[in-house]
């Protein structure tokens, strides 16, 4: 007890044998070994009756000069001091034993559990998705708790329940690293699948102008839904019961990354679309422009402007049609006109014609 309690000042390094003499003995079984029991009992009796015995109990050094009729009161006063001393409040022996044994059992079981789940760490940290991770770690945790329950449930009930909860938290903490790592890899895979799926959808629907026929948003929506379903399905599969694990943050991050990819790809496709329309515009205006410039007349510039406006309106109409079909971009007419006004002219006639074009 002296080793377990808070010791008074000055005797912090004391041990129990500094204050108590302790002897231990055992007796043979009275029914199975009656003769040996009687012999051992007689030997034990000597400790109380024979003063010359080396293990004599009532040594003079123990005498406190307390009269026999005053001993009950003396013992009572000693016990009152023990009861009132809060430093001596210790768990019961049953609880102490339960704590020790439960800790010991948990340590052994946790070691086996760690050995079972550690092989998954390397592939997850390497960026791979471990197939069947959810059932595997759930099975490992169930085996851990079953081992602990089998060996520890016979000890003090409250201690057992407390230690079981501690073991469950320790196991969940270990498995949480695998869960988060798997979520990270699932997010990367879902984003990669989205990009590939979107590219395939875009490539399969390229029209004659080198750009998409149909709604870009529809393609994004379909690819986004497939990527999200994959991530959610896989994330649900690795969620364990009796945990507070959530993939909401990772899913939100995935949506943001998908939107970034979609926005970037939309910009690329719009640039391709505009470039394709520019080439079509140049083809539409080059021949009539060259013809008008090679046949000067008083109506030359009026015809040039008329042909230019017709080609420009046709290209602009196609661009607006694309914008309204689900591409969700703004058609900045002034910028497009400026680009098309200058890009279609050759070196010999750009300077001559530009002064007329810019006043459109």
Please render the helix and strand layout as text:
Elements: H1 34-49, H2 71-84, H3 93-117, H4 121-125, H5 133-152, H6 157-204, H7 216-237, H8 248-294, H9 300-327, H10 333-343, H11 350-357
Helix pairs in contact: 3-5, 3-6, 5-6, 6-7, 6-8, 7-8, 8-9, 8-10
Organism: Olpidium bornovanus
Protein name: RHD3/Sey1
Pfam family, one: RHD3_GTPase
The percent range for strand residues is under 5%
User: What's the helix-strand series?
Assistant: HHHHHHHHHHH
Radius of gyration: 45 Å
Global geometry: rod-shaped
Overall pLDDT score: 82
Largest sheet: none
Number of strands: 0
Q: Alpha-carbon distance between the termini?
A: 103 Å
Q: Structural class, from secondary structure content? A: mainly alpha
Low-confidence stretches: 208-213, 344-360
Helix content: 55-70%
Number of helices: 11
What can you see in these coordinates?
By secondary structure, the chain is mostly helical. Helix content is 68%, strand content 0%. The chain is built from eleven helices and no strands. Helix 8 (248-294) runs antiparallel to helix 9. It is rod-shaped. Residues 208-213 and 344-360 have low confidence and may be disordered.
Name the descriptors.
360 residues; mainly alpha; GTPase activity; RHD3/Sey1
């Amino acid at each position: 007890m002296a080793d377990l309690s808070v010791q008074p000042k000055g005797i912090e390094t004391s041990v129990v044998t500094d204050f108590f003499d302790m002897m231990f003995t055992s007796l043979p079984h009275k029914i199975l070994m009656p003769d040996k029991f009687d012999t051992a009992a007689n030997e034990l009796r000597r400790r109380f009756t024979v003063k010359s015995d080396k293990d004599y109990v009532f040594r003079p050094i123990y005498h406190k000069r307390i009269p026999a009729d005053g001993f009950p009161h003396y013992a009572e006063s000693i016990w009152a001091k023990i009861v009132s001393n809060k430093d001596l409040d210790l768990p019961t022996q049953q609880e102490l034993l339960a704590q020790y044994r439960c800790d010991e059992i948990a340590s052994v079981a946790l070691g086996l559990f760690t050995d079972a789940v550690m092989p998954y760490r390397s592939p997850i940290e390497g960026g791979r998705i471990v197939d069947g991770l959810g059932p595997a770690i759930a099975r490992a945790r169930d085996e851990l708790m079953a081992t602990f329950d089998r060996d520890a449930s016979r000890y003090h009930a409250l201690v057992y329940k407390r230690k079981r909860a501690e073991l469950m938290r320790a196991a969940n903490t270990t498995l949480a690293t695998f869960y988060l790592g798997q979520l990270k890899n699932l997010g990367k895979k879902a984003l990669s699948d989205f990009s590939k799926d979107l590219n395939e959808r875009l490539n399969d629907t390229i029209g004659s102008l080198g750009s998409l026929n149909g709604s870009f948003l529809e393609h994004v929506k379909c690819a986004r839904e497939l990527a999200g379903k994959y991530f959610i399905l896989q994330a649900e599969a690795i969620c364990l019961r009796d945990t507070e694990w959530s993939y909401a943050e990772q899913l939100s991050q995935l949506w943001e990354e998908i939107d970034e990819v979609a926005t970037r790809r939309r910009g690329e496709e719009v640039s391709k679309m505009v470039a394709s329309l520019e080439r079509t515009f140049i083809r539409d205006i080059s021949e009539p422009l060259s013809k008008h410039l090679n046949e000067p007349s008083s109506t030359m510039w009026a015809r040039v402007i008329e042909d230019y406006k017709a080609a420009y309106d046709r290209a602009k109409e196609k661009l607006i049609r694309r914008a309204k079909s689900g591409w969700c971009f703004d058609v900045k007419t002034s910028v497009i006109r400026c680009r098309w006004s200058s890009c279609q002219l050759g070196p010999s006639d750009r300077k001559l014609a530009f002064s007329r074009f810019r006043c459109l």
